[in-house]
Structures
1.
Amino acid sequence: MDCSLAPTEEAVKKQIAKLLGQDLETEVKKVATLHCFGGLKVKDRFIYDGIKECVAANLVLGGPKACVFGCLGFGDCARVCPFGAIKMSDEGLPVVDEKKCKACNKCVDICPKKLFSLIPLDKKVYVACSSQDIGKETRLICPVGCIACRKCEQVCPEDAIHVVDNLAIIDYNKCTSCGKCVEVCPMKTIRVKR
């Protein structure tokens, strides 16, 4: 069987809607996005010798990482993904395969640090940090954390990014993925998805 001739899931939905005399409301595909880029770049506060799971490690003083907002790196998200869309990198961070991700929300639910969100696939810019520490403290523990400098706010032509609680937040209803915030971010915290 030639798989290239097989109908896409979207095409099947459109045909069913047509047969039922209904309009198909197209939904923008979303993918899981990790809001942390620290990984092994962030020092540990203590040696953790417990169960190698994020949920368990988080119960011990918020986990061993110096950044209490960052990824613990034990891969609970990868284990719960039913589509095999998340793999752990050599940097100790989960990497999402956007082609496999079905936005099922399991990684969002399992992460004790709430580091995942579902972002529309066509939005390429994201903030790879979740720290709410003041900039000076963030710089001491993470070389790629948001320092709340507000340069992103100042350069955004769409008013789509604002610093709230010491962290840059993107409004995806306004963001056009122009990348100007990426260019000015001194910490390289605001990134473009590959």
2.
Amino acid sequence: MSYVTLTDHDSIDGALYLLNKYPDLTDFFIGEEVETYFPETNQRIHVGVWGLTEAQHREMQRLRPDIRELIPYMKSQRLIFAVNHLFQTIE
């Protein structure tokens, strides 16, 4: 593998722990799986985000209750992101 990340749910604590323990890692970047919602229906969706900073994580946590606020923010930050397991809550 060329690069490695951890994508905890709504947390970057594991990634920060690893970076603090091994500060010279050059092939590791911070990732996260953000749980967000469509506010009209409360339908949840998980979005994988990669290459973010601690400040971006804090802002995404603030915005995550509304996917229509979260996605424009991630785009404005030029973050790489994708929808994870899109049909997980369809019954």
3.
Amino acid sequence: MNDIYGIDNTTANLADDTQKECVVCYTNTKNTVVLPCRHMCLCIGCSQIVRMQTNKCPICRTQVSSFMQITVDANGNQTNE
């Protein structure tokens, strides 16, 4: 996960609150990756808003082809949805 999205369990646990927050709402935790640019910068709710309004990554303005939600279970294992 770290090679692809720049995250791992250690980094996620050590990051301060501003690094964990969605870049749109600043309330929810980031859990959605923008493809093809691979920026993990949105919560699932804001990804739907971005899809409907601009369909561009809020970080680099690349046209979005899809979103991938990343979840971490209680054991710290990451899964893609």
